Amino acid sequence: MKRLFRFVTTVLLLAVLAFFGGSLFYGTKTVHDLLASNEKLKQAIASLTHEDQIGFAKVVGQEMRDGRLYTRIRFVETARDDLLKKVLEREYEIEGDVVHFDALVVIFSDQAVMDGKARSLYLWRRIYGEHQSPSDGCDIETPGTRPERYAGLLRDLKLPEQQLFWEAIWNLANDPEALRDQGIKAIYGNAVYKRLRPGLIYVFKIGADGRVYPETVLDL
Questions:
Q1: Distances (CA, A) of 123 to 63, 94, 208
Q2: Strand pairing class (200-206; 53-65)
Q3: Phi/psi of residue 79, each to 5°?
Q4: Radius of gyration, alpha carbons of the chain
Q5: Measured between alpha carbons, how far is 179 from 108 in angstroms, rounded to an integer?
Q6: What is the pLDDT of residues 144-198, one digit of tens each?
Q7: Residue 83 — φ and ψ, nearest 5°?
């Protein structure tokens, strides 16, 4: 009986150590470690292709209230592999008709990618009006979480590694000095603004230099 008790106690102790040891491992590991040693992550990043379109917006209503103009916007984020597929669709109301769309551009270094060719992520961050400060804007994606358009990108990685990757990407945006040690060439914000009118669709595209810009087309 005592032997059985000692055996069960030992198994439980090892299980606890394994759990906390794994937590400590992922807690101290950095995105640099993942980029340097994780072949699956390198393959995932190498699978990214150049994107021309990353979303669009349209006005669904404008009205005057108490002498002020308010614009209601429908914002759509499109899938990486299907421009007609919506991965996120939300509506926002902004005071005025000049609206800022804020995206985060992440460029990985050549060494961090399996085929040695730089790749980029484009993460929508927030929307805000000209009468707002950016910090008071409305979130599109929640910082620290996996963006829906990249839902399947890291499917071959363990869940703690996926969480570490996305948390690190969002955190590095606020700490540019740390980039040179992380296998990432650049992270920068790209906020574009436009005076919005009903009857038009504003399609957000990526230029050759990685900049986001809106292209205006008729809403037929």
A1: 30, 21, 17
A2: antiparallel
A3: -70, 155
A4: 22
A5: 10
A6: 888 888 988 899 999 989 998 898 888 877 676 666 666 777 788 889 999 999 9
A7: -70, -15
